[in-house]
Amino acid sequence: MPMQFSFTDEQEAFRLSVRRFMEDKSPTTEVRKLMATPEGYDPAVWRQMSQELGLTGIHIPERYGGQGFGFIELCMVMEEMGRAVFCAPYFSNVLAATAILEAGTESQKQALLPALADGSRLATLATTEAPANWSAETTETTAEQNDSGFRLNGSKTLVVDGHTADLLIVLARSPGTSGAYGLSLFTVAGDSVSRRLLNSLDETRKLAQIEFDNTPAELLGELHGAGITMPRILDQAAVALASESVGGAQKMLDSALEYAQMRMQFGRPIGSFQAIKHKCADLLLEVELAKSTAYYAAAAVAENAQDLPAVASLAKACSCDTYMKAAQECLQIHGGIGFTWENDTHLYFKRAKSSQVFLGDPNYHRDQLVLRWEA
Amino acid sequence: MSESTSTTARETQIRAEVRAWLEDNWDPNLSLHEWRNRLIDSGWGCASWPEQWYGKGLSVGLGAVVDDEIRQFGAVSVAKAGVRMLAAATILEHGSDLHKEKFLRPLLTGEDTWCQLFSEPGSGSDLAGLTTRADFDGEHWVINGQKVWTTSAHHAQYGMLLARTNWDVPKHQGMTYFLIEMEQPGVEVRPLKQMNGHASFNEIFFTDAKIAPEFMVSTEGNGWKVAMTTLAHERRLADGIRSWARGEKGSGRVFDELRAEIATVMEPYKWYPQRAGRVDLLLERAKATGRINDPVVRQAIAEVLIKAKAAEWTGRRVKAAHALGRPPGPEGSLGKLAGSQVARLAAHAHTLIAGGEAMLAGDDGAMNGLISEILVSVPAESIAGGTDEIQRNIISERSLGMPKEARTDIDRPFRDVPRNTVS
Ligand SMILES: Cc1cc2nc3c(=O)[nH]c(=O)nc-3n(C[C@H](O)[C@H](O)[C@H](O)COP(=O)(O)OP(=O)(O)OC[C@H]3O[C@@H](n4cnc5c(N)ncnc54)[C@H](O)[C@@H]3O)c2cc1C
């Protein structure tokens, strides 16, 4: 199977344009302003990003109003956004679009995707119920069918941007079913549920708690089809998060290097001490290794590779652990200043900590990796 | 292994004396200051201090026995914890009679609060690289510069200040130690917010702040040596603060005022236990969440417990050897480094136990945000009080006697040493 191990010139140019946009629109001064607001994004920047750059529709096919690029380009965007700890409901939109692409019927894709592609509608995916459980099979939210359609009962937590989403894609099961059987995806109007913004460790990523109380819902795709589609959706989510994380990790390495060259102690740059040099060299090794896993996994999604399930977990575990390590070391290299609120390192540290457990902690994914690996 | 716990006759006798005195004098309905003045006058408040200065000239060990007896009796002690004790130790060792006369008593009664003005934005690991300057204008020392990481500065009356008075000599020889009045126009105190949301420290800006010549400690240029005394006592600080926070249960005026004092003094230290990783919570949390059933989580907890217990017992070995009067071995310098490893491992184990809940903070977080506070406080452990890298340098060069890193900053006038331009 041909697997891409380098980006094309066009892709590199695209990356550069996204990076420029992030540097221009999302300096950390802006991130700090937005993370303190409940909405957590700037609508003007969102519009520009979706309509001028087309980033919201990057991996959505042209026939559904998207840009028609692949998952690799999507992951490049995630990586650059991770680098900037960009504050916007982008990842949530990606999750929802991916779910619709994987699970929706042709007419649902035509109806729902254009508004996600042009950024005019915000959407998210609501799957998690208990904070320590990431597998779809433990879902307890029920979807009861009657003459007028489906009604949902239950609750979801850690829903990314769930408090602002216009459209919720919700995982629920038919009453009386268990395990992978009986699971379906539904679309629910954001304003038909009671929802609450949660206090998140990483203030740049907004999370919500959502309650369903006989909430009207429409089936997305096939009844009981989510046992098959959810794992694929979650694999892609894990790969996207891995990509975001290697972007953050690289930023931490860059920041550590810059500081180590500038900061003087004992009459010399701290970067001249071997303790600091070795730390940076080790970090380079880890960050480059993690990038390779994220890039390989993105290509695996794009090419619908057989080994995707194992590779998605591999990339998630490796990239998110590396991000955490890079943030920790960057903070350490900054010394006391790194522990202050004013220094930007903590924004990344908290994103790394949060991403480490989001969609399954490293142990979960290491476990999945081995179980899914085909010898 | 056994620690020497035998009670000597001298100890028994001292306990009896303290008890007898307390029985005659303890009165919980006095004001806190009235009571402490009485205790200070008796010499029991600081029994290991010289008799001339509120003490009884006892050994440090017997002084602790006196403190223990006061505690057991249920009486309130002098204000013997926190940064003020660093000031007291420094003044006792290097201060003039004027300093002792003016500062020691209000420090012990709790009327005066102190802060330590050493670290600067431009010099942390390299404390001797500080650039806050003190220039003599014929009448006063005039202070200009900036300090950082100063606890309690916003309500301190006095500060221990290390400043540069001579730029033409090697760095360690050009510093002088001062006692500075904080409430004056040239001193501006700004809170410093940390990544965990607390603001336990301050930044201090000096703009032509003034110090009268008699408030120099020791001699001009001898500041580094004096500062070493202060730093030597810093390690005992945490223990003192913990024991101070006890004994707040009694009733009577003296206890009411003590509780108010503790609340103020303890405020900046509220998150300190979290910074060390809260190893004590791991098993309880794992059981409460059911994560104890996951063998990988159990392994992670075991790793923390192994390191934490090993470090604790190493500390006990150090103490036991010290009690027997044996010279300190290399194990004495390891506690700080072990502590920061324990903290990191514990934060990781807490993350695994919390799972997705680790993404939440405050009221929505595990244990009302206590767990998230651990996660964002632990990074301080490997930085504050000397970074891990500096600890490793000290261990390798001092404990292991390895060749020293070549220095280019101590053999020339300080003004010629490259340093941070922006602080
Ligand atoms: C929570 C907290 C509480 C604090 N409390 C106090 C306090 O009460 N009083 C006080 O005075 N200060 C306090 N500090 C300051 C603390 O002592 C310094 O932050 C610390 O000594 C490091 O100095 P720095 O921040 O300037 O970092 P730097 O010295 O600039 O260090 C930056 C990096 O370079 C490394 N480095 C520096 N020199 C070497 C070397 N020779 N070899 C190898 N690596 C090196 C360091 O390890 C670090 O990784 C506190 C700091 C924190 C975070």
Describe the structure.
The complex is a heterodimer of chains A (375) and B (423). Chain A is built from 11 helices and 9 strands. With 375 residues, chain A is an alpha+beta fold. Chain A has 3 domains: 9-117, Butyryl-Coa Dehydrogenase, subunit A, domain 1 (Orthogonal Bundle), CATH 1.10.540; 123-224, Butyryl-CoA Dehydrogenase, subunit A, domain 2; 228-374, Butyryl-CoA Dehydrogenase, subunit A, domain 3, CATH 1.20.140.10. The relative contact order of chain A is 0.11. Chain A is globular and about 80 Å long. The longest helix of chain A has 37 residues, at 226-262. The mean pLDDT of chain A is 96. With 423 residues, chain B is of the alpha+beta class. A 4-stranded mixed sheet of chain B has the order 1-4-5-8. In chain B, strands 2-3-7-6 form a 4-stranded antiparallel sheet, with no helix packed on it. In chain B, strand 2 and strand 3 (141-151) form a beta hairpin. Chain B starts with 8 loop residues before the first helix and ends in a 24-residue tail after the last helix. The mean pLDDT of chain B is 93. The interface between A and B is large, with 49 and 57 residues. Flavin-adenine dinucleotide (FAD) sits between chains B (116, 118-119, 124-125, 149, 151, 380, 383-387, 389-390, 393) and A (263, 265-266, 270, 273, 275-276, 332-333, 335-337, 339).
Write a concise synopsis of the structure shown:
The complex is a heterodimer of chains A (375) and B (423). Chain A has helices at 9-25, 28-35, 43-52, 71-83, 90-103, 106-117, 226-262, 274-302, 308-334, 345-357, 362-372, and strands at residues 123-126, 142-146, 149-160, 167-173, 183-189, 194-197, 207-220, 264-265, 268-269.
